[in-house]
Design brief:
By secondary structure, the protein is mainly α. 72% of the residues lie in helices and 4% in strands.
Length: 259
């Protein structure tokens, strides 16, 4: 390698968020409450949309699909983080680290496609209401969901294809509480200068591209709503405000991490 004492990495050690026991206790309580609330809320959304025939419309089916994906998003890293809070040595195996990266990027890619699909659904419902049932047919919804799964898996496999066979050597300490490509790229365990550009081009293009598509679609929708001053416009705006809030909560941290 470079003459230093390196050994092949078989596990990674997390530094975690803090070494203070008081803050760790606070994080444990907060994380457990948030995890249980997230899982419960998403399970209830999926359950009620599934059993209630009145909710079998494209908007609610897409919402249930988003909640189903969020169940995976909640479980990809949170249980391990909660388990590690009071562990002195927070470790994860090499295979476990790769699995976390895979599921994080599959779920992230799927969620971006679903958010774009939900924005398109609202665009058709508000801007082309007479053609809504024709455009957002059950077949179209299935195609959108299949595209979400396909893009998420392809994106994740593309990321992993560049790192799974790389030489992981040397210090295996990650200043984080979960595995992701930016953390691996910043560590000394990965001996390659090509990982950073691959990460930022792939994830950055998908994230920023999706965000701008959503931004443009919401501008079109808001412009259409602004032109109509009927009572339905307030209902449309309330729906859009929920969508836009979710988009910013999702894309804000994601773009912060990769920037």
């Amino acid at each position: 390698m470079d003459g230093r004492n390196h050994s092949v990495v078989s596990e990674f050690v997390f530094l975690g968020l803090t070494r203070s026991w008081a803050i760790q206790l606070l994080l444990l309580v907060f994380s457990c409450v948030l995890y249980v609330a997230s899982m419960t809320g998403n399970v209830l959304v999926v359950f009620f949309v599934t059993i209630d025939p009145h909710l079998h419309s494209p908007m609610y089916l897409l919402l249930a699909s988003l909640s189903f994906i969020d169940l995976g998003a909640c479980s990809a890293t949170s249980p391990k983080m909660i388990y590690d809070v009071f562990r002195k040595r927070k470790v994860i195996s090499f295979g476990g680290c790769i699995a976390q990266i895979f599921f994080i990027h599959v779920i992230g890619g799927m969620e971006m496609v679903l958010l774009i699909t939900m924005a398109f659904d609202r665009y058709v419902a508000i801007c082309k209401p007479l053609h809504y049932l024709t455009i957002m047919s059950p077949r179209m919804c299935v195609l959108f969901l299949a595209a979400a799964w396909a893009l998420g898996i392809i994106h994740s496999l593309f990321q992993l294809a560049f790192i799974v066979n790389l030489p992981f050597c040397g210090p295996n300490v990650l200043d984080s509480f979960y595995c992701d490509l930016p953390r691996l790229a910043l560590s000394d365990a990965v001996l390659t200068p090509f990982l950073n550009p691959v990460i930022y081009i792939n994830s950055g293009f998908l994230c920023v591209g999706s965000f701008f598509i959503l931004l443009i679609s919401y501008i079109f929708i808001l412009f259409t709503v602004w032109k109509h001053s009927s009572g339905g416009s307030s209902k449309a705006l309330s729906t859009l405000s929920a969508h836009i809030t979710v988009v910013f909560f999702f894309f804000g941290p994601t773009m912060f991490i990769y920037t």
